[in-house]
Amino acid sequence: MKTLYLLVPLAPLFGAIIAGLFGKAIGRAGAHIVTILGVTVSLIASLIIFKDVMAGNHFNGDLYVWLESGGLKFAIGFLIDPLTAVMMLVVTFVSLMVHIYTIGYMAHDEENWPADSLARTNSYQRFFSYISLFTFSMLMLVMSNNFVQLFFGWEAVGLVSYLLIGFWSTRPTAIYANLKAFLVNRVGDFGFLLGIGLVAAYAGSLDYATVFGKAKELATMTEATTGWPLITAICIGLFIGAMGKSAQFPLHVWLPDSMEGPTPISALIHAATMVTAGIFMVSRMSPLFELSDTALSFIIVIGAITTLFMALIAIVQTDIKRVVAYSTLSQLGYMTMALGASAYSVAIFHLMTHAFFKAVLFLGAGSVIIAMHHEQDMRKMGGLRKYLPITYATVLIGAIANAGLPPFAGFFSKDSIIMAVQASQIPGAGFAYVCALAAVFIGGLYSFRLVFFAFHGKERFRDAGHDAHHGHDDHGHHAVHEPHESPKVVTVPLILLSIPAIASGWLIGSFLYGNWFGNAIYIDTVAHPAMAQLKEAFTGVFGMMAHGVVTLPFWLALAGAATAWFLYIKRPDLPAVIRAKMALPVKILENKYGLDQFNEWFFAGGARGVGHGLWKAGDQTIIDGVMVNGSARLVGWFASVVRLIQSGHIYQYAFSMIIGVFVLLTLWMNRA
Amino acid sequence: MSSLLSLAIWIPILGALVVFSAGNDKKLARWAALAVAIAGFLVTLPLYFNFDVTQAGMQFVEQRPWIPRFNIEYFLGVDGISMLFILLNSFITIIVIIAAWEVIQDKVAQYMGAFLIMSGLMNGIFSSLDAVLFYVFFEASLIPMYIIIGIWGGPSRVYAAFKFFLYTLLGSLLMLIALIWLFLQSGGSFNLLEWHQLRIDLAPQILLFLAFLVAFAVKVPMWPVHTWLPDAHVEAPTGGSVVLAAIMLKLGAYGFLRFSLPIAPDASQYLAPMMITLSLIAVIYIGFVALVQADMKKLIAYSSISHMGFVTLGFFIFNPLGVEGALVQMISHGFISAAMFLCVGVMYDRMHSRQIADYGGVVNTMPKFAGFMVLFAMANAGLPATSGFVGEFMVILGAVKYNFWIGFLAATTLILGAAYTLWMVKRVIFGAVANSHVAELTDINSREFLFLALLAFCVLAMGLYPYPFTDVMHASVDNLLKHVAVSKL
Description:
- Helix content of chain A is about 70%, strand content about 5%.
- Chain A is built from 29 helices and two strands.
- By secondary structure, chain B is mainly alpha-helical.
- A two-stranded antiparallel sheet of chain B has the order 1-2.
- In chain B, helix 1 (about 5-20) runs antiparallel to helix 2, helix 7 (about 155-185) packs antiparallel against helix 9 (about 200-220) and helix 15 (about 365-380) runs antiparallel to helix 18.
- Chain B is globular, with a radius of gyration of 21 Å.
- The interface between A and B is large, with 88 and 98 residues.
């Protein structure tokens, strides 16, 4: 079994190395075959492991000792339990779908590069190499049995995300976005690393099992220098890391910009897997987080803010990918709220269903983008359902699931979160509940707005505004390029992902209430009884649906959908009117609350200002100007003297000086 | 008695003689230099493979009288603290020779010879256990570097060479006084190991510490005596920058471990808050300054100072994680700073500019090079799985353990280091082709590929498996820390 565990991350790594280093030799087909093969092997191995884990076989062991110092042993190793097994399946399955989809999406990638760029020659192979490398990194992250490897995976997925957001490196927006993503994530990692540092300092180990074993002990300590309750300091530090990676307010700012990357990675990295690493991490650390109500309160409030305020922005976006991006932020907010409510399994459940339906939405959006020849503005779409029937159907499935309507997957997971938040006693839960409900309405609205705006209504791509470049019109008898359905390598992954986007929610019974996670997730049921109450109230899949349709969230989501229908199908003239009447709120939302501007001015500008100030005033004026001034003049004098001996056989000087020093010292000092 | 250390010192120095005799035959000079460098590296390998990791004391010891009248000895030996630096130095020498191959066309034999001499002298510094011997090597190493900058350097090379020379020479004068005082105090011995056992009062300990501090702080360099380094780097030829950053900067830090801490442990503890403060200033202040540099070499020079701040920080928190982390950081910085300066050199050889503003979109014309550059930049930013992460990680863990706020301030490097490195990468490597010069760039040749690949291998190997590096340190570092913990008053 241990070999199989090893195979799961190494197979994609192998594919990545082959496609990355020998891309030219093996060609395009070679690159996608070797990487897809790698991920397929990984998926099959994950399935076998999943079955094995379900049979009760867990594993926790080290592969090799990475480093040993100061009594701390840092190892690379695996922890295989139900939580890991679920993550492995989600990651490898979505990754495989995305790999296949990429064959179609990147088929004409050379068009995205300047003709004379050498970076364009192997761009196809490089892309496959990166997504396989990502799969490896993400698997190492979820399979880790210790904090060091977790941090490795954490940063490695960040690296690949950086490389992929900036994949089209000749675009200024892309390389701005990837730098921003990396730096904002580093702010999160700053907290994360300090959290890990505190764990190492006080638990004396970075091995999960050892640390969790000491959790109760840690909860009684205070941090020596600051006097803070230790466990709260650790948990908040770790959670700040999660805020970066899982894009929680106010560290969410990188994620919308990450849409500059090719769409397959928006689906894989920036929706389904990497951004959920923070959610996974907190769930993994539940034995620690359960002991700090302060941290849980902080988490639920941050999650609530993210859920509501990001959903609001989604309403005003016109770029189809950005709508999905803000929707992702909002959904990540839901997961975070679930964490705060101690409903870790629910967070993971939503993580899973979201991975499927959001991958569908992103890949569907990508399919639209292919059909529209890289046009992403929904104002130039409309009426596409006729031309892209499969894409339309799958996006509709994704949208319904995203809105949380039964019987689609999102309903079960999102409704469970709302119930958990409602049941939670943690300070801030009330606020979170209100935010969650408001976001349900808005979620219905923006989800269906996307569907109606892009796929229904007037065919706006026929308007003069659309410039039909690339104009290789296959049909030849239309003046305007007719969009047509994407090839099978694109639609088949969409269909395959749609199935769990509908059905994965039905697993709720065993997933949440069947003691499925065993002791992989720890809940202090006395202090945080929300999950226990949910279990009490659960009456099966049909019972939940029956109950769902008489509760508020269902009607709110439906009302959101109806509003979207009214605004974009019934009265398409209305949005412009509303926009004009509510200029200020719209402007605030379009400017995303001004956070980007503030960060650019305060942090980026401020750092440059400080740097200039220290350099000019500190280094040049004070240190060099005042302190070194005297010696500088001396330098000038020396220089004038030595200029005389500058040319010629300098080696003589060098060598004779050294030998001379030795010889003279020896002779002179031994003369007596 | 082994003579490996003598070989490590004298093969390069005497080999330089052979290289000099090649005269104007460039080809011969290059191949001779390479042969000498490789031979010099090969003799250092047994130092690692035959090293006894259980032993804290000196190994491969050579001890002969040199100047009996003053009890000065030719006394060599290495422990877990110094051994790796001899390997690093000998390895980097090979890289420097390969990197200079076609680039240096002027006085080839002299250039190669100067680097070989420097390599031998540096091995001498890391293995001397006699204070006079150490001092001679320490001062002598200035000469070849001074000449390298002064002859093959840029337009202001004379200014930079003298700033470098005077800064470091003046710094070490106080150290000479300290050495003489210790000689008298010890009843006529220059044996460092005996000095480690001397009992000294706090006041003279503090004076000793400060005298050594001046010498070593300039070398590291620590804030505020760091301003010579960016100038020296900017004017130095690529090879000069590589050796300066990869090896010479380590001399100062090494001096703290060999002199300041064991000879003046009470003063070290007493002055630790000052040292920690200076280190943190280096990490943060210099990090900000690096951010706004327009010249790539200056940026990397400032980045070096900031990274060396981690080294001195690690030393003065007095826990094994800190000290071993600092040593790991020193070796890792040897690889990464060498690689970064070589990358700039590769571009400079083609464009004759180091200004960031003159570049943009290099990946479009030099994709292979861009791959290396991004890798090394990531290592410089401390990405896990590269060597750059290991030392920083260990020092940050050690610092958090020592005092949360020190760890907090040190950890800002995660953000600053990434900001200044990757912002440079964005402006130089990525983007559309910025101008016609960039459009005409040709990608790296097989020689350039070779030295970048060698360093990439080191950076990744050390990042993925640092265990063999720290394994040899434990005994000596533990011993040092135990020694420092005991008062000598």
